[in-house]
Amino acid sequence: PVKFLQNYQKWKSELMATEVGKSQWESYANNKNFILKITVAKKENQGAGTGEYLWNETGELVGATIALGWKLDKGFPSPVYFPVMNSISSFNVPGEISNETLAATKFMHEFGHVNMTKNTNQITFQMQNSLIPDYNKILLTNGYNTKDQRLVDLASKMGGTPVQIWENREYWGEATAMNFLLEKVKTTDY
To answer: What's the Cα-to-Cα distance from 168 to each of 29, 35, 94, 113, 162, rounded to whole Å?
Structure first.
């Protein structure tokens, strides 16, 4: 929406101010076989999300949507699953790391999700997404017994428990965000 365009342009400029950010952006902007849609929405608030993945008939990822929160330049996620983005909070002294840098770091994290999904087998990715609710339903109804053979079998089929799968996906995002943040802060005194 037009009312979010100015902030989006600031975040994009901050991302493109680094070689890693510019390279990441151009890898999708110059790929005519991939459609990356980027939106800004109130729904995401201070966070962001990636989804609406599209695959072609050979199982190659050819599209995705990154939804940025309208307050992307505010708030720090939990250090447990988002250590890179949360690390900025330690330096959140006025003038050291800007709100635009925080937003661009979150933006880059979402590029990490797209990158990871491009490198994941379509069948595996979709199977994980379809079986995770089944796993969670069983877990909630069996008294949280993770040794339940049904859960063991599902985890084996999915390549991990839902938490392990989610952590892996988030840490991919964090590794991508870290490349951006390291380049951005390499000239600082801290």
So the answer is: 26, 24, 33, 10, 10
For residue 87, the model assigns a pLDDT of: 83
Which CA distances in Å does 139 have to 88, 129, 142, 168? 35, 16, 5, 20
Write down the residue that tokens 């250590």 correspond to. 83
Q: CA dist 181 to 18, 107, 153, Å? A: 9, 11, 39
Tokens 């900025």 belong to 88
Beta carbons of 62 and 34 less than 8 angstroms apart: yes
Phi-psi region of 175 (alpha: psi -120 to 50; beta: other; left: phi over 0): alpha
Residue with the two structure tokens 């859960």: 151
**Entry pTM:** 0.91
pLDDT of residue 185: 82
- Compute the Cα dihedral for 49, 166, 118, 129 and give only its sign: negative
Q: Give CA 190 to chain center in angstroms.
A: 26
